[in-house]
């Protein structure tokens, strides 16, 4: 069930250039059902008034805490980045449908492909798949070396490839250059739309789950700010809401 809660900040740190890792204590952690869900954070009572959608990168129901990773890039996330341990945040969540973990079984291989700020939700997914005996391979793409984060965290679970667009770290180029030679049973991916589109086209014969990044208003399916076209409707008038139908979709479910 979606809850609105004032959550205490346990820690906040900058883990790469303008990338922040924020951990809070919250009862709503008990409502999280899948990796890849997100929360909606109110960062100010004045400007900006709209909440900011931030994906959940990991959670621990025993400790009652969850962690988010976000990029500081506008007014809202700049205000968020200024907050420190002990302060309180107004959080709505958990929201959306995440990655279906049971689409791969023990002994199979899952390929997790993340681009930039699409990397965080894959971390909890990687942890859960690994715990279930699934072999995981990670391919993480960033613009440049200073933007790289969580490589070592992912490495603990399995083979991890890093690509940077400018070649300053890992292999030079895009994640799609790396994944074409890998073998796997299922892909889970999150990142910029051109990356998702390329992956969907490359692996039309595979099981692919894509988490879409979209601008949001309400976050709960009420405002239509986040709609995308449904692929199974020939008339082109049927839509899906990324916030409440997604953000994770099976390939071929929506037009991206
Ligand atoms: Fe309002 Fe999705 S953000 S319907």
From TrEMBL:
FAD binds at residues 52-55, 69-71, 76-77. Its cofactor is [2Fe-2S] cluster; FAD. Pathway: Pyrimidine metabolism; UMP biosynthesis via de novo pathway; orotate from (S)-dihydroorotate (NAD(+) route): step 1/1. The keyword Repressor does not apply. Binds 1 [2Fe-2S] cluster per subunit. [2Fe-2S] cluster binds at residues 218, 223, 226, 243. PROSITE patterns: FAD_FR. Heterotetramer of 2 PyrK and 2 PyrD type B subunits. HAMAP family: DHODB_Fe_S_bind. Belongs to the PyrK family. This is Dihydroorotate dehydrogenase B (NAD(+)), electron transfer subunit. It comes from Neobacillus ginsengisoli.
């Amino acid at each position: 069930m979606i809850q609105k809660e004032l959550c205490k900040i346990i820690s906040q740190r900058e883990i790469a250039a303008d990338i922040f890792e924020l951990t809070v204590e919250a009862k709503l952690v008990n409502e999280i059902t899948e990796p890849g869900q997100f929360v909606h954070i109110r960062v100010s009572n004045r400007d900006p008034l709209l909440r900011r959608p931030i994906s959940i990168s990991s959670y621990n129901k025993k400790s009652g805490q969850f962690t988010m990773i976000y990029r500081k890039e506008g007014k809202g996330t700049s205000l968020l980045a200024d907050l420190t341990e002990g302060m309180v945040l107004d959080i709505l969540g958990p929201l959306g449908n995440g990655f279906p973990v049971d689409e791969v079984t023990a002994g199979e291989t899952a390929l997790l492909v993340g681009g930039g700020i699409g990397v965080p939700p894959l971390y909890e997914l990687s942890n859960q798949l690994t715990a279930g005996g699934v072999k995981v391979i990670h391919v993480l793409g960033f613009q440049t070396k200073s933007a790289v984060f969580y490589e070592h965290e992912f490495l603990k679970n399995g083979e991890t490839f890093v690509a940077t667009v400018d070649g300053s770290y890992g292999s030079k180029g895009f994640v799609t250059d790396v994944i074409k030679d890998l073998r796997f049973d299922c892909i889970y991916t999150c990142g910029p739309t051109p990356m998702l589109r390329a992956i969907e086209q490359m692996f039309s014969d595979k099981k692919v789950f894509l988490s879409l990044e979209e601008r949001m208003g309400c976050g709960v399916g009420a405002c239509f700010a986040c709609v995308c076209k449904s692929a199974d409707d020939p008339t082109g008038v049927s839509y899906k809401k990324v916030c409440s139908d997604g953000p994770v979709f099976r390939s071929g479910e929506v037009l991206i």
